[in-house]
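Input (structure):
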């Protein structure tokens, strides 16, 4: 019988929390400690109100917390006791210095690595769980081995493919688990150790083992491909509006081709979330550093189309409402970057709202999972100036009194001139649109950024409806949006 494995995960965020909770649930013989420097985050993980909203997460945490799953701020203690250390700290885009606006900021990673080197007293496997630039393991290895006092560190890359909103299901039934390691006997042994952890619940043929660089790059590649699909269908949505084609019909027809597949082909106001943009910018930067400007430009275009889609949406709104939204109340339904999460990082709602505020609109915002504080914070922050041209209005300082966060769709839409759906929450499909219409200013507009409403029913009620990528109402045709 082998000795009990102890796991420590540095970073109790959207990735560290759910992944470790599932490992603890599926591996009762393994003790899992999730540590973080944020006292508030750890306190929340130890309370009844977890710091993130994710369907099914509460249940998993409740089953293991205090048994073989622990959340703690005693970072050094748990790191020194662990055999396997996952590092799941944030890796945002650098905001200043070399590679600003593109390169990954590895400050948090480096400080975690130095701390691991400082406190370790026995051999460790260090696992990159965060999404990192390809070749990061080499840098981490250098930090660890230069400070190691004869301890053997093995670095593995084990990127996480979960999607927010379905994280627990994704972790229970992953399409694949990817483990990259060194080609040496020690490297292969470390791969096997980690593989054994996942083998508690993941079928063997779904655990892919590769070299370090393939594993690191595969995560960036997967996110780039996913985002590219969205930008592709969004680019088509603009052409659909111009020609009278219907993007839902086009997606359906295209997706029937088994080489393409039906998933992830929904047109929308644009992708968001903490990862797609950051990881593509990171990929672009790596291409440029490796003397591959053509490849860099190819991927850059995915972000440009996403920016174009957001600004196109705002322009369509403003132009159809007589070219001004100044002083008008606009209801914003949905603020999270997708349904079933409270996460607002890089949500297209931020850009759309800022665009409308730039034209002096009054916003009444409702999201079932995002707090008022979060929305106010997101909208008062300066938009980070990327090095790619943004088509959006520059942010003019405005009073946040123009932004009202409310607790229901009816309150948000009362006396509004337009309503705008920015997250595909299920509850928006079954709203009482007749009642909403009766309480709005006329003409009443609906701008559906997620294809959730039944446009023909809404038109029957009397709304003027814009749905991305669908044939335009006569009204909208008469008020062409200037791109
Ligand atoms: P997050 O920001 O929610 O969590 C990161 C946590 O690390 C924070 O709580 C922070 O306080 C903590 N931290 C930072 N430095 C630390 C240190 N030195 N010691 C202890 N704790 C420290 O980030 P999230 O969303 O969990 O992402 C983490 C990584 O996983 C990123 O690289 C991201 O790209 C990647 N990823 C994210 C996915 C997502 O859906 N959010 C999916 C797959 C990968």
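Output (sequence):
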């Amino acid at each position: 019988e082998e000795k009990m494995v102890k796991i420590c995960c540095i970073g109790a965020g959207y990735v560290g929390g759910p992944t470790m909770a599932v490992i603890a649930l599926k591996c009762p013989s393994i003790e899992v400690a999730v540590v973080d420097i944020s006292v508030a985050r750890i306190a929340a993980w130890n309370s009844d109100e977890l710091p993130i909203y994710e369907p099914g997460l509460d249940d998993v945490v409740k089953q293991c917390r205090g048994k073989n799953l622990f959340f703690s701020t005693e970072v050094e203690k748990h790191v020194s006791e662990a055999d396997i250390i996952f590092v799941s700290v944030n890796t945002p885009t650098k905001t200043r210095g070399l590679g600003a606006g593109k390169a990954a900021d590895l400050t948090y990673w480096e400080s975690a690595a130095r701390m691991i080197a400082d406190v370790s007293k026995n051999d460790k496997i260090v696992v990159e769980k965060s999404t990192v630039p390809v070749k990061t393991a080499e840098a981490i290895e250098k930090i660890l081995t230069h400070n190691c006092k004869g301890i053997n560190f093995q670095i593995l890359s084990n990127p996480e493919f979960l999607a927010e909103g379905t994280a627990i299901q994704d972790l229970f039934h992953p399409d694949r688990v990817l483990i990259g390691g060194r080609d040496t006997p020690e490297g292969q042994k470390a791969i096997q150790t980690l593989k054994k952890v996942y083998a508690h619940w993941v079928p063997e043929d779904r655990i892919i083992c590769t070299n370090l660089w393939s594993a690191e790059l595969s995560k960036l590649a997967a996110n780039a491909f996913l985002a590219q699909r969205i930008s592709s269908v969004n680019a088509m949505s603009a052409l659909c509006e111009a020609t009278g084609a219907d993007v839902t019909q086009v997606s359906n027809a295209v997706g029937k081709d088994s080489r393409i597949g039906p998933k992830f082909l929904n047109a929308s106001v644009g992708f968001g979330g903490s990862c797609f943009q950051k990881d593509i910018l990171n990929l672009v930067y790596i291409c440029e550093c490796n003397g591959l400007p053509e490849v860099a430009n190819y991927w850059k275009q995915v972000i440009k189309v996403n920016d174009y889609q957001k600004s196109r949406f705002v322009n369509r709104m403003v132009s159809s409402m007589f070219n001004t939204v100044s002083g008008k109340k606009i209801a914003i339904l949905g603020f999270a970057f997708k349904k079933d999460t409270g996460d607002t990082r890089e949500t297209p709602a931020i850009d759309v709202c800022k665009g409308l505020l730039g034209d002096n609109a009054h916003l009444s915002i409702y999201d079932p999972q995002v707090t008022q504080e979060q929305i106010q914070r997101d909208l008062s922050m300066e938009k980070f100036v990327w090095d790619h041209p943004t088509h959006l209005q520059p942010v003019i300082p405005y009073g946040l009194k123009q932004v009202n966060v409310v607790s229901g769709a009816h309150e948000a839409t009362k006396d509004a001139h337009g309503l705008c759906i920015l997250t595909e929450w299920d509850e928006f499909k079954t709203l009482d649109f007749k009642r909403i219409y009766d309480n709005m200013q006329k003409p009443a507009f609906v701008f559906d950024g997620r294809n959730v409403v039944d446009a023909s029913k809404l038109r029957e009620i009397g709304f003027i409806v814009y749905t991305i990528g669908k044939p335009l109402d006569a009204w909208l045709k008469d008020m062409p949006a200037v791109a």
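Notes: The mean pLDDT is 93. DSSP finds 18 helices and 14 strands in the chain.
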